[in-house]
């Protein structure tokens, strides 16, 4: 792997979820890039206007201004067409990939595919001016050895962090902390039937858990996100799903404690 592919390049990471910013930053740093972060499209535009950015890793679903609108605005700025932009999409939504290219992004990668190897591959291609990979090739390869009954595949997640255990463990501790806050927020949203807020929390957990190879947790979060969009949604069904999510979070945390007892403290 050409680990210096991002040497001397300033990379702007745009994502509303802190865990994803931590994950992507660790990958970019490992590849020699200089990281700047933003939590939404508005912050992204402000940074682009005052700094010389070489590459943007752009989340699609964000509050205030999403990645599609932000990309369109960037391309209209003086010099904006020279910035390389990689869209980071929801892992099961191939339709978002088409939107990324239509907005003017150079490439699009699903979140579950985003590893250091994938970033090297895509960066080499876009900085050399090669044609992007067809959407049909941006499919996650199933891991036949993965145990779907295990809350979290630590070994596989570690590979995504270039086997840097210290960084992965710090991300896991932060993820645990954020999850505890999000569960409180999600209960408040459900009490008032603020389904957009509930959906957004579920969406961020879905992506963060998938990036950390916690597939059972990601799957339940996805179910909540889908249920929030359903015209026939009911509070009873959402309550059931939220209870299931809490169970998956508890399993995730307890499993991590069994692997690394030093990581989580009360």
What's this entry about, in short?
With 266 residues, the protein is α/β, with parallel strands linked by helices. Helix content is 55%, strand content 9%.
Explained architecture:
- The structure is a single chain.
- Strands 2-1-3-4-5 form a five-stranded parallel beta sheet, sandwiched between helices.
- The chain is globular.
- It has helices spanning 18-30, 41-50, 67-75, 94-103, 116-128, 154-160, 165-191, 195-211, 215-229, 235-259; strands at 10-14, 34-38, 55-59, 84-89, 107-110.
- Helices cover 55% and strands 9% of the residues.
- It has two domains: 10-137, Rossmann fold (3-Layer(aba) Sandwich), CATH 3.40.50.2300; 154-259, Up-down Bundle (Four Helix Bundle (Hemerythrin (Met), subunit A)), CATH 1.20.120.
- It is of the alpha/beta class.
């Amino acid at each position: 792997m050409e680990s210096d592919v991002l040497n001397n390049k300033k990379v702007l990471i745009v994502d509303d979820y802190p865990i994803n910013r931590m994950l992507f930053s660790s990958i970019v740093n490992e590849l020699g890039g200089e990281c700047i972060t933003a939590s939404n499209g508005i912050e992204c535009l402000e940074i682009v206007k005052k700094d010389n950015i070489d590459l943007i890793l752009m989340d699609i679903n964000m509050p205030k201004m999403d990645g599609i609108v932000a990309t369109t605005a960037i391309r209209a700025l003086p010099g904006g067409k020279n910035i390389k932009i990689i869209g980071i999409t929801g892992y099961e939504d191939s339709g978002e990939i088409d939107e990324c290219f239509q907005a003017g992004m150079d490439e699009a990668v699903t979140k579950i595919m985003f590893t250091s190897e994938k970033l090297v591959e895509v960066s080499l291609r876009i900085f050399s001016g090669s044609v992007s990979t067809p959407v049909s090739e941006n499919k996650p390869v199933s891991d036949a050895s993965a145990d779907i009954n295990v809350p979290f595949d630590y070994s596989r997640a570690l590979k995504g962090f270039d086997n840097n255990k210290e960084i992965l463990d710090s991300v896991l501790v932060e993820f645990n902390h954020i999850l505890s806050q999000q569960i409180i927020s999600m209960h408040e949203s459900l009490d008032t039937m603020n389904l957009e807020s509930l959906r957004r929390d579920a969406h961020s957990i879905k992506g963060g858990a998938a990036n950390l190879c916690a597939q059972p947790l990601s799957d339940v979060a996805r179910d909540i996100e889908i249920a929030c969009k359903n015209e026939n949604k009911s509070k009873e069904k959402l309550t059931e799903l939220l209870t299931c999510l809490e169970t998956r979070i508890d399993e995730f945390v307890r499993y991590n404690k069994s692997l690394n007892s030093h990581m989580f403290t009360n």
